[in-house]
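One record is kept unedited as follows:
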Amino acid sequence: TTTVLKCLQARYAIDVFYTKAGCSLVAINPFRPVQSLYSQELMKEYHTVDSLQELKPHIFTVAEESYRNVQSQIPLVNQSIIVSGESGAGKTWTSRCLMKFYATVAASSDIPEGSIT
């Protein structure tokens, strides 16, 4: 709707590229590098915060939420993240950010003694 579009335009104008919409995350491609938006420090912040609701909407929120779900479910429950959009919307970049987040988090996690890696 027009209201949603105006909201997204206003957020984009102030360099806010992620917006939570119910259980979905709307990402807008900034079409320019924004290094601080994907830094190691930011990954750590999203991984170590007690409540993800304390932080701004971000692709790292989605990644951490799915990571926590996998870690806490017994029996394990598969997680899926759907990245969709038009050509040039940033799907490949978003997928890379997700994979980098998981690799970084997995590498930083404590591995129990005697476990097979």
The chain is about 45% helix and 5% strand. The chain has a mean pLDDT of 90. Residues 32-108 form one domain. Helices lie at 2-13, 40-48, 59-72, 91-108.
